[in-house]
Design brief:
The N and C termini lie far apart (about 110 Å). The radius of gyration is 37 Å and the shape is rod-shaped. The chain has four helices and no strands. Helices cover about 60% and strands about 0% of the residues.
Length: about 150
């Protein structure tokens, strides 16, 4: 048997879930194709099923997993993958919305500054007056410019 490359905790967990999803009779071939000894794999399986794989602990007492439990573990692992994919999509959408929100906030800030700059100019003009034409004191229309 060739030496296995170093596998991460997640890779080992995925191998165990894939193995547990296989029907009876296909598991030996699964291990042989990956060049994994049954002893090593069963040790991995015990740690994954016992929930100790992240801590690197190996369960001393045997953990028996029925076919129903194997199917449930496999189903849950598939559900977790699907939910992680959905979460990644939602995160991407949220990031896009964040960018849009920042652009909108920048536009609002720029418009607020522009309004602030124009407000003193409009305060100089009185309502109903035209700075170029002037207005008559009676308010009956423009007075022609003197000249």
């Amino acid at each position: 048997m060739a030496a296995l490359p170093a596998l991460t905790v997640e890779e080992i967990r995925e191998l165990v879930y894939e193995y547990l999803a296989l029907p009876y009779g296909a598991r030996g071939r699964f291990l042989a194709e990956r060049d994994i000894s049954p002893h090593r794999f069963h040790r991995w399986r015990r740690t994954v099923v016992a929930g100790d794989i992240e801590r690197g602990l190996v369960s001393r007492n045997g953990v028996m997993v029925s076919h129903d439990e194997s199917a449930e573990i496999s189903r849950l692992a598939t559900t977790v993958k699907r939910l992680q994919a959905e979460l990644a999509v939602k995160d991407s959408q949220l990031m896009t919305k964040d960018v849009e929100l920042r652009r909108a906030q920048a536009a609002v800030t720029a418009l607020g500054k522009a309004i602030g700059l124009l407000r003193p100019l409009s305060a100089d003009e009185q309502p109903g007056t035209n700075p170029e034409m002037g207005s008559s004191p009676s308010g009956q229309g423009p007075t022609p410019p003197a000249g």
